Fold each of these.
Amino acid sequence: MTSKTKPTVSAAIDADNDITSPLDFSYKCLAGIQDAMEEEPRAGPHKFIRVEKYDEAGNVKVKYKANSLRFCYNAISDLQSFCSTLEHFLEDPSDLGWLDLSFNDISTIDEVILQYPNIKILYLHSNDIKKLSEIDKLAALPELRKITLHGNPIEDLQGYRQYVISTLPRLKTLDFVAVTNQDRSDAMTWRELKSKKK
């Protein structure tokens, strides 16, 4: 007799399944990403797999097996030294899948993020992004499925939601709200009407 197995969780939420607990640098008063290199990740309920490596001088360097980072609630305004900071902490920075930069002072989306094509979840809410055209850069992230942008000045611009959805058509959630097929259709219609008016 064969036993039937229950179906697995739908592919619509699979993006979360391979995301590890984040290395947490929230509430550290960081003025820049590079300042995290002077800090230890915030202790939390999760244990991280630490990997000890040795440099040429024989000094121990601790790295973490993680693919998510939390830099929320700081005073970060740009992503200068982002790559070197990831290299400092992560055993494999190219695996970065979730990045939380919410509640900072970011006004532009730095293209350095595009060097991490496995990013699936990006939190940018409660920053200072004023131009919808900044979202265009993120279209180059092939795996991006969830993004938050609410609490930025762009949220108050006419057509904000339609612009983001039409620019990032693979999104499954925007500002913690599911993106439906109807949303995608409405966003494309909106974009077509906007382009005809130009």
Amino acid sequence: MADRAPRGWMLQADSLSMLRHGFFTRLGGVSSAPYNTLNCSLASADTAENVAQNRGRVAGFLGVSPDVLLGLTQTHSADVVTLTSKSPVWPTGRGPKADALVTNRDDLALGVITADCGPVLFASTDGAVVGAAHAGWRGAVGGVLEATIAAMASLGAGEVTACLGPCIHQPSYEVGAAMREEVLDTSPEAGQFFMPAPRSGHFLFDLPGYCLHRLRRAGLCRLSTIGLDTRPDVARFFSHRRRTLAGGGAIGHQISAIRAGSVI
């Protein structure tokens, strides 16, 4: 379980310190290369046994059984799943298509999988309502962060705090002109989050800056960020962009998760 994992297997936000939560790295698991070691992706070609053990370690830290560490079939959407006392719990690996979860139940843990996209963990200030969102550029532009906040409000959350976990940062995130135009068509103010890349006709996109901007615009005042770039940090994080630059191949994913009402 968590007490056997090496130092550095998990990062936490001071603003969420009243709750069990973690932005877990790729350290502290059982998977072998190229999934080494804490691969938590059920969609990878890693063995089911290894992924189950890895997710079990995360669940153990959060104080829940592995079957209630809930995740989604992520699709880069703005869709949010709300879990209440009447909500059924799906089997591991069969989560609905969506990119965020919220709950007021303290017997569940909510997790999102990333390997460059932005994992965002949310909590009401009393810890009674929590959320987890997967925010790539498409999801962020589409409004997944605002939709998560709205879903939490429907459960009675008042003031909400949020933390953005490790994700790809501007120096590592070169994009084409078409992607920039697609973002600006929906979100014209996002021009401030692009700067020219060394390669002609390309740009560097500030995904964390844009996500935090959307969160502030949605009314959140209590915001923080882990501030780590996944692409260059080979030791601690999986990265789709790193894999792409290396010519492809298999990849694992890290998990970020939170549980309501569980003071550490």
